[in-house]
Amino acid sequence: MPDYVSLSHLMTDDQANKHGKELELIRSLFGNIEPETIVNWATNNPDSMTFKWCKLHETEESRAFLFSVERARLLMRTIALTVEMPNGISENVRAFVHVEKNNSGREYTPILEANDNELKDLANQAYKELQGWSKRYRQYAMIRNNPELLTLVNQIDHVLKETA
Fold first, then answer.
1. What pLDDT is stored for residue 1 in this prediction?
2. Would you tell me how many other CB atoms lie within 10 Å of the CB of residue 15?
3. CA nearest 114: which of 126, 104, 102?
4. Which residues are within 8 A (CB) of 161 and not within 5 positions of it... i.e. 6 or more apart?
5. Interval 112-122: pLDDT, tens
6. Which among 47, 49, 78, 156 counts the fewest CB atoms within 10 Å?
7. What pTM value is reported for the model?
8. Alpha carbon of 21 to those of 27, 57, 70: distances in Å?
């Protein structure tokens, strides 16, 4: 089994490795590692790290609040506007974007009301996401020796270099 590491500040590499082992166990038991399966397993394993990660040890009220917050985030990512683009074609566009607000933290704002600084932040986010996408898919292409995917990633990298 491989060693797992964290891609986030939310956990240490050691914690990520332990979580990864639990996820392997869940997959071996149920044949998948879908979020619903993970939560169902963790509910029955209160000593597990996954139980704690999913905050199943919290009170019903706090779990409901966390669930509601996650649903609200999903809602903000789901609502769209139909906008006529400069080429005359109407497209559905996310109505709200998550941007830096006056150096006071990030919050959702209507895309049609985003100011120049917020739009600049949005462009910076897009650039960082493309860099992350390129890195992740380059790794997949190299691990699986997939020249088609590698060609696509090289094209994205070329565009990133031109816009840097």
1. 57
2. 16
3. 102
4. none
5. 889 999 999 99
6. 47
7. 0.67
8. 10, 20, 26
